[in-house]
Amino acid sequence: MNTKNDWVTRSLQHVWHPCTQMQHHETVPLIPVSHGCGAWLYDMDGKRYLDAISSWWVNLFGHANPRINAALKDQLDQLEHAMLAGFTHTPVIELSEKLTALTSHQLGHCFYASDGASAVEIALKMSFHSWRNLGKTDKQEFICIQGSYHGETVGALAVTDVSLFREAYGPMLQKAHVVASPDARLAQEGETAADVALRAAADLERVLQQREGKVAAVIIEPLVQCATGMAMHDPVYLRRLRELCDQYHVHLIADEIAVGCGRTGTFFACESAQIWPDFLCLSKGISGGYLPLSLVMTTDAIYQSFYDADVRRGFLHSHSYTGNPLACRAALATLAIFTEDDVLVQNRRKAQMFADVFASLRDDPRVRHVRQQGMIFAFDAIVADAEKAATFSRRFFSAALQQELLMRPIGRSVYLMPPYILNDDEIALLAQKTMKVFEQVMA
Ligand SMILES: Cc1ncc(COP(=O)(O)O)c(C=O)c1O
Question: How many angstroms does the Cα of residue 155 sit away from the middle of ligand 1?
Answer without folding.
Answer: 13
